[in-house]
Amino acid sequence: MTPDLLKKGAERVARSAQQRVESTESGGRNAGYGRVVQDANEVDVTHGRILYLEDVSVSFDGFKAINKLSLDIAPGELRCIIGPNGAGKTTMMDIITGKTRPDEGSVFFGSTIDLLRYNEPEIAQLGIGRKFQKPTVFEHLSVFENLELALKTNKGIKASMFFKLDSRQSDRLAEVLHTIHLADSVSKQGGLLSHGQKQWLEIGMLLMQDPKLLLLDEPVAGMTDHETERTAELFLTLKGKHSLMVVEHDMSFIRTISDIVTVLCDGSVLAQGTLDQVQADERVIEVYLGR
Ligand SMILES: Nc1ncnc2c1ncn2[C@@H]1O[C@H](COP(=O)(O)OP(=O)(O)OP(=O)(O)O)[C@@H](O)[C@H]1O
Ligand SMILES: [Mg+2]
């Protein structure tokens, strides 16, 4: 490149930097139109809601699995969802994460991100992490490698091959290891962990991506009592730093972690309140006992 071209390039850079300063100082387009460009890392929670579903319905072969479902969650909240088998709990998570498209209704992440405009990988990128019931850790990789791998997802092949943790990521990995109670098993192979530890590792893999909202479907199913207690501690630590939606059938676990409990039945909200309140609700007793 000739010195002349270099000089011209430098001038262009300086000019565009000056234009950016002027447009901000004069209250130009950016200021006038509010948030023009949606930063993928930014979720607008000024209205006090991180997740907002309104009148959502979906049918499978004429059967309404979700029926005019409306629900919202505050930032940092740990919301528990209960309901009988077939109530639509997993289908609701499928809709939030883009796995299933609803026939009607709105699904918003914060007040500006219309999730129905995004596909599954894009929704994960926006900061919604999902944990399915069955653990899916890489059995032949160590705990450390599994967590490290979680940072590489969504990167290109070349970027992944030369990927190296920076100091911020190393600190994050150490923090996550501690949070998921696996600091003593860092070199252990995923396949040698207990069922509960695999579940924690998978939660850790989600945490490595620092999700704003975490959806967890039956996280303590198959865990020992001790593992369930430790999972409750883990969720209480995550509350506030992340927003969580937890679907569970284990009522003593729900009792330990819950503030507000939403009861789903036949694809819509049947009741909502503290666990004591919903358990005393005649309609809830009826659907659980089938009276
Ligand atoms: N892809 C699908 N095709 C057809 N029917 C489906 C599909 N997904 C879910 N359903 C039906 O929708 C209803 C709700 O299912 P869903 O799995 O959401 O219930 P759930 O509340 O998660 O139940 P559980 O507590 O047993 O996990 C069920 O009757 C189920 O058979
Ligand atoms: Mg389910």
Kindly describe this structure.
The structure is a single chain. The chain is an alpha/beta fold and 291 residues long. It has two domains: 3-32; 76-99 and 115-289, Rossmann fold (3-Layer(aba) Sandwich). The protein contains twelve helices and ten strands. The chain has helices spanning 3-25, 29-32, 89-96, 120-126, 143-152, 157-161, 167-179, 195-208, 225-238, 251-257, 275-279, 282-289, and strands at 51-60, 63-73, 78-82, 104-109, 113-114, 128-131, 213-217, 243-247, 261-265, 268-273. Strands 6-7-8-3-9-10 form a six-stranded mixed sheet, with helices on both faces. It has a four-stranded antiparallel sheet with strand order 2-1-4-5, covered by helices on one side. A hairpin with a 2-residue loop joins strand 9 and strand 10. Bound molecules: adenosine-5'-triphosphate and magnesium ion (MG). Magnesium ion is lined by residues 89-90, 217. Adenosine-5'-triphosphate is lined by residues 60, 65, 83, 85-91.
Q: Kindly give the count of domains.
A: 2
- For this structure, the CATH topology of the largest domain is Rossmann fold
Assembly status: single chain
Q: How much strand?
A: 15-25%
Average of the residue pLDDT scores: 85
Reported CATH architecture of the largest domain: 3-Layer(aba) Sandwich
CA-to-CA gap between the ends? Answer: 82 Å
Sequence stretches where pLDDT stays below 50 over 5 or more residues? 1-39
Q: How would you sum up the major sheet?
A: 6 strands, mixed
Helix content: 40-55%
- Structure classification: alpha/beta
Order of the strands making up the biggest sheet: 6-7-8-3-9-10
Query: What would CATH call the homologous superfamily of the largest domain?
Result: P-loop containing nucleotide triphosphate hydrolases
Q: Which radius of gyration do the C-alpha atoms yield?
A: 23 Å
Shape: globular
